[in-house]
Design brief:
Length: about 750
């Protein structure tokens, strides 16, 4: 995080505390508003409950006076109804006033309906007839009007306590819930019965509540039914808004079974607090913006620009420019001290560069000498053994004491020593990954089965060989000859690890790598696993087994190039090699080879090629005189005419002079400023279609660039025998031009 960003963080923290205090004040303000409005709602609900109680009391007093009116006890029904109609008009808070005979039949009513109505099934009548209470109260919805009313039934009795009639007044609850002072905006009065049924709402809009609605089981209904004492709560209403509700103390209304609530939306209650919070938030936002702009400007001028200069100077130092310095004027304070220290450090580094370079040169020279010493020591050991054989048998051949059989044996020993030297050279090139390969689609299962009989003879009967080939194995893109050599090398190592016998398993399988699974590109591979039950390899040695000239065998038992050669061959083929081992339980080496995109070509049996010469003229270009003389002698013995050149410059001069020849046979790497490849290109420009045959004992330069000889022209690796030379020359001569 940059220093400017850190300063902005400090500024943010500086504004965060006041903002947090403002938020806390806002929360306290909201809670205070809710609490205060809850008290006001409670007072409103309590006032309404008291008004209802007074109305019930007034109704009772009215009924007490009406009960003594003589017209009600006379049998004149019409006069009775007219009287009650006048009373009802004088008291519009009642939807109706009527009298009921002891047998439950309607006698007269204020509506003057004259109907015959049996009221025995009314709960208030049954209670009034049998109860000793002064009045019976029951909330209900009128059957004629459908309006919510409070039935106030007054049983009028004779002096001997027998029922004379029941005087019933239906108090209009909707009218009773209209307070004299209209509630402020958003506030509502709600009247429920003990069963949770809504009797009246005032005002009737805004809450989703209406008369007849059943609230039993809802949060609001549960709050109303929880107690007859006062209380407050917050409830989410059906319209999705949160409301604050206050419950009135209705213990005095218990006989009527009524519950009075007052509520208001929380948003309305806290509107003033929200407005103050928005005003404070706007002020704090303006303050924070001004503070951030000030800090940004100060950080830009006093901190970021000086640090940018020092960062640029450090970047130049990192890129190797030790002359980089922080230019003046230097900043004051700690940044100035830091800039001075950077300049001094740069000067010290510049002074030390020469010493470090000298030390590095000496260290590199020491490492090169150590590597060369190890390489030459290992190669010298094996080549001195081979040269001892060559020189010894050459001395025997130079003498006259050998008969024909002994001379043939000595010659065979010389040839064998030379071939062992060639194998050692190929191992070195394979380790360096410079050997020429001829990859093709190879059936690895078929190759393993083909080499199996030879392995059985070579390893001995004390080694059990098991082959586990995967069915429908993909073909591998690899040099079959080199793969056979690598497999033989691994099997010989396994044999040496099992001197008392054991089991060798050759296993093949298919492998698909996803991106990131290994060091190889994602794709399909063929896995060849060689496992033995031998002595295993120690963990410390396991990390070095692919190093050249490292071996766990006894001195003189191995060169240490076998696994290095296999490693170089597999990596050059585009695959990877892995090894795992556990001392006392055996070793497993696995080769992962790329899958071939084409099928395996059908094998065709070819007759052995005969050693055949010719009568053409060959231009032999070789800088090594002994090799050139040998090649010329071999070619002349095959019947060819030979023209020699010691280097590319001499050969090109002969070509330009018009020397006639049919094939250019040239070494790849030659001194004199003109390589074999450059000579071939020049010769073909002068003589298009000229056959060319390359030879080389070291192919790094020959195969290092696009357009290398193996891409279009034949190559004969050194060392070569007469038969190989004869076949290569004939193939080059008979190769179609192009």
């Amino acid at each position: 995080m940059s220093i400017r960003a850190r300063l902005l963080m400090v500024a943010l923290l500086a504004t965060l505390l006041p903002a947090l205090l403002a938020l806390l004040r806002f929360q306290d303000d909201r809670r205070a508003q809710v609490a205060a409005d809850g008290q006001r709602l409670a007072a409103l609900a309590q006032a309404q409950a008291e008004d209802l109680r007074q109305r019930i009391l007034a109704t009772t007093q009215l009924q007490f006076g009406l009960a003594r009116a003589s017209v009600l006890v006379q049998p004149d029904r019409t006069a009775c109804s007219a009287f009650l109609s006048e009373v009802r008009e004088a008291h519009p808070q009642y939807t109706g006033i009527l009298t009921i005979n002891p047998d439950g039949r309607l006698f007269c009513d204020s509506l003057r309906s004259g109907r015959e109505l049996d009221l025995n099934d009314r709960g208030y009548f049954q209670r009034a007839r049998s109860s000793s209470e002064a009045v019976v109260l029951e909330p209900a919805f009128g059957r004629l009007t459908g309006r919510a009313v409070l039935q106030v039934a007054y049983p009028v009795r004779t002096p001997d306590a027998s029922l004379r009639f029941v005087l019933l007044a239906s108090l209009d609850l909707a009218r009773a819930m209209r307070p004299a002072v209209q509630p402020t905006a958003g506030r509502r009065l709600l009247l429920l019965d003990d069963n949770g049924q809504v009797l009246a709402v005032s005002p009737a809009d805004g809450t989703g509540l209406q008369g007849g609605m059943q609230l039993a089981g809802t949060p609001l209904g549960q709050f109303a039914a929880a107690s007859r004492e006062a209380g407050t709560t917050e409830v989410v209403m059906p319209d999705g808004q949160r409301h604050v509700w206050a419950r009135a103390d209705v213990r005095a209304l218990a006989p009527a079974g009524l519950r009075v609530l007052a509520g208001a939306p929380e948003a309305t209650i806290v509107a003033a607090a929200d407005q103050r919070f928005r005003r404070d938030a706007a002020w704090y936002a303006a303050f924070a913006a001004a503070l951030f702009l000030t800090v940004w400007w100060m950080a830009e001028r006093a901190i970021r620009r000086p640090i940018a200069r020092m960062t640029g100077m450090a970047g130049r130092l990192a890129s190797g420019d030790l002359q980089a310095r922080v230019d003046g004027p230097l900043p004051r304070g700690e940044l100035g001290t830091l800039a001075t220290a950077l300049n001094q450090a740069a000067a010290a580094l510049q002074a030390q560069r020469t010493d470090i370079g000298a030390l590095h040169a000496r260290l590199s020279q020491s490492q090169r000498l150590e590597a060369v010493g190890q390489l030459t020591g290992g190669v010298a050991h094996d080549f001195n053994n081979l040269l001892t054989v060559v020189l010894g048998h050459a001395d025997l051949l130079a003498g006259d004491r050998l008969d024909a059989a002994q001379r043939r044996q000595a010659l065979h020993m010389l040839i064998g020593a030379a071939e062992r030297g060639a194998v050692l050279t190929r191992q070195l090139l394979a380790y360096a990954r410079q050997q020429p390969l001829a990859p093709s689609a190879v059936d690895v299962n078929q190759l393993v089965m083909a080499i199996h009989p030879m392995l059985q003879r070579t390893l001995g009967e004390h080694i059990e060989i098991a082959v586990d080939g995967a069915p429908q194995l993909w073909p591998a893109m690899v040099d079959a000859t080199q793969l056979e050599s690598a497999l033989l090398n691994l099997c010989l190592n396994a044999r040496d690890a099992m001197p008392s016998g054991g089991r060798l398993t050759l296993h093949t399988s298919r492998l698909t790598l996803q991106p990131g699974d290994a060091d190889l590109p994602a794709g399909d591979y063929v896995r060849l696993r060689v496992s033995d039950t031998g002595s295993g390899i120690a963990a410390d040695d396991l990390q070095r087994v692919f190093e050249p000239f490292f071996t766990t065998k006894e001195k003189g038992k191995g060169t240490g190039l076998g696994l290095a050669m296999v490693y170089g061959f597999v990596r050059q083929s585009g695959g990877q090699i892995g090894i795992s081992s556990e001392p006392g339980h055996g070793t497993t080496v696995q080769l992962d080879l790329p899958r071939a995109s084409s099928p395996v070509a059908a094998a065709t049996a070819l007759p052995p090629a005969a050693v055949r010469g010719g009568h053409e003229t060959l231009l032999v270009v070789e800088d090594d005189e002994l090799v050139r003389l040998l090649a010329s002698a071999e070619l002349q013995a095959l019947g060819y005419r030979v023209v020699e050149a010691a280097n590319g410059v001499d050969a090109l001069r002969l070509i330009e002079q018009g020397q006639a020849f049919d094939l250019l046979f040239t070494d790849v790497i030659m001194p004199g400023g003109l390589s074999g490849r450059e000579l071939a290109d020049a010769a073909r420009r002068l003589r298009p279609g000229l056959p060319v045959l390359f030879t080389s004992g070291y192919t790094e330069d020959a195969f290092a660039q696009p357009g290398r000889p193996d891409a279009g022209l034949p190559l004969l690796p050194k060392p070569y025998r007469r038969a190989e030379l004869a076949r290569a020359v004939r193939a080059a001569l008979e190769r179609p031009p192009g």
